[in-house]
Amino acid sequence: MSPALRGALLALAAFGVYSTHDVVVKTLGAHYSAFQIVFFVGLFSFPLITLLLMQDKTDGNLIPRHPWWSALRSFASLGALVFGFFAFSQLPMAQTYAILFATPMLITLLSIPMLGEKVGLRRGLAVLVGMIGVLIVLRPGSAPLSLGHLAALGGALAGATSSIIVRKIGANERSVVLMLYPMMLQVLGMALLMPWYYVPMPFEHLALNALVAAFSVVAGLLLIAAYRAAPAVVAAPMQYSQLLWAAFYGWLFFSESIDLWTGVGAAVIVGSGLYIVLREGRPQVSQNQPVSQNRWRLDAGPILRLGLWPRRK
Questions:
Q1: Rounded CA separation 170/298 (Å)
Q2: 27 burial via Cβ count (<10 Å: 0-12, 13-18, 19+)
Q3: Distance CA 161, CA 180 (A)
């Protein structure tokens, strides 16, 4: 088996696990607030991720070299989690994924003010087409926009912000620093909200939270293996297989179906996103290292896993 094929299969497996993770999140979201789910998933993830971070042998301490950017990224990562979890609890899975898949386009837009990049005509047109795809999915005017739609858009923006900051500071920050502070904010920040949002959980629901945490770690390890085996331009587009999982899981567990306009909009978004991801894989496109090939692939979000875990060498 060629390295490219092995990397693609590992990435497909990773995104399949992530989609299963999102089914559990959606199931829990019918009973609990996104804040409570994020808290318990973070609580169960902390020891698992800590064991992985202990493998980081890079010399240094836990003080960020870019404290303000690190703080902003921590809040962006937490926002991506909360918005994403809430969106999955409110919207059909396929519609949620379609909106969240706008993240590569938002990364391209944010790279202009935050990184000083110049976006050429082709990428600019790809972003415009992708935004049209989002409008097709949302269909403003034909139906009222819900908090779930706004949360999905917020999750895409927060995820894009987190990825852009990783691009900006990732070469100078240790992976343990990039991962540790968002995790601490996730647990401690949500703990402060528990007096208002906590609902007692039976053991089986606590176990589901632990399962979400385990799925996240397993999928992350599969992605690490995928990016070791194949270039990012091979592994990253596999994320769009989540639409197929969403269609299957939505039908199987939630009696959901994909309406015509969601399907059309999703196709437009995926096409635009694929073009951007593949074009960013060409080093001459940007003076900065593309997000899709950034070594520091760290995040804890359940959504669009582009720029989520470190591509370890």
A1: 9
A2: middle
A3: 18
Three-class SS state of 62:
coil
Average pLDDT over residues 26-32: 95
Helix (H, G, I), strand (E, B) or coil at 140: strand
Selection from 119, 160, 111 nearest residue 279 by Cα: 119
For residue 41, pLDDT over 90 is answered with: yes
pLDDT of residue 310 exceeding 50:
no
Q: What is the pLDDT averaged over residues 141-155?
A: 85
CA 42-44-50 angle, 5° bins = 85
Element (H, E) at 266: helix 260-280
Choice among 100-109, 134-143, 217-226 with the minimum mean pLDDT:
134-143
78 class by beta-carbon count within 10 Å (0-12 exposed, 13-18 middle, 19+ buried): buried
Q: What are phi and psi of 143, to 5 degrees?
A: -150, 145
What is d(CA 179, CA 96) in angstroms, rounded to the nearest whole number? 25
Q: Report d(CA 101, CA 269) in Å as an integer.
A: 7
